Amino acid sequence: MTTQRGDGAGTDGVDWDERAATFDEEPDHGLRDPRVRAAWAARLRDWLPGRSGDVLDIGCGTGSLSLLAAEQGHRVTGVDRSPAMVALARQKLAGPHAVFLTGDAARPPVDGERYDAVLVRHVLWTLPEPDRVLRRWRDLLRPGGRLVLVEGVWGTVSPVGIPADRLTALLAPLTARMRVERLSGDPALWGREVDDERYAVVALRD
Prior knowledge:
The chain is an alpha/beta fold. It has helices spanning about 15-20, 25-30, 35-45, 65-70, 85-90, 130-140, 165-170, 185-190, and strands spanning about 55-60, 75-80, 100, 115-120, 140-155, 160, 180, 195-205. The protein is built from 8 helices and 8 strands; from the N terminus they run H-H-H-E-H-E-H-E-E-H-E-E-H-E-H-E. Strands 1, 2, 3, 4, 5, 6, 7 and 8 form an 8-stranded mixed sheet that branches. The relative contact order is 0.15. Pfam families: Methyltransf_11.
């Protein structure tokens, strides 16, 4: 998750260019632990199309999920506002089936391209007007394509994030076909036990 303003500072006040060098040290960012990597690979295999397709990874960070999607046979385009993150993603996943672009998550610079899946992890909650952003992301899908949104609510004193019921309400005008998958109970995804709300929503475009 590296949603930012143009000056390099995130909407949450974090300078993601500065943090790029250590971003992958978090277990669910770098996926360096084989068990964490396998857990995310299994989830992506279920969430993304079963056949090879075009996947847009919005807020791709250093490209860890992009790499898993490519290993499963998909052609990947990653977008991130942080040039430092994009540079690391390009190092991680160089080749003809992966393209990484610097740009705004709310308005991905993809020049009218359409995708079989739009994958977004821990980004939507940072963006203003999430209803408009979701509509824009939906419009990037081909008919039958899917939005894969991994979100949650973090912290107890001053929680941040977006609850699953709010996200599904925002998606309801866009699709009648969606499912919510609870992720808090799978410590392999996070490299530790968690007790906050973490989930994925897979929503299909008609």
